Fold Large ribosomal subunit protein uL22.
Amino acid sequence: MARGHRSQIKRERNANKDTRPSAKLSYARVSVQKACFVLDAIRGKDVQSAIGILTYNPRYASSVILKLLNSAVANAENNNNMDVSKLYIAECYANAAPTMKRIKPRAQGRAYRILKRNSHITLVLDER
């Protein structure tokens, strides 16, 4: 039943850890669908062209993802000593976060439910 001592199990788990620089934003106030429109535009691009796309994209999610990209680039530069000019976006995805439920009063005493959706956005960079 047991696979080994607890320290051995932790050592094995940490050996498989991803060392690529990344940044994660939890509970972003944008729906997954709207965030994915922007993420699809920058997936696989190098960092400089992705920053250009995000800067001039009119969607709200692009401003949020631009901050996240700048954070991931800073992590790569300071923590991993990577060259910023060689970086590209290896992975970027948005997962659903808990939804806030609100009530909208309607005619004849009815109440409609409003779902304010959130997302967890993750960016992973890598060197070419």
Q: What stands out?
A: The mean pLDDT is 93.
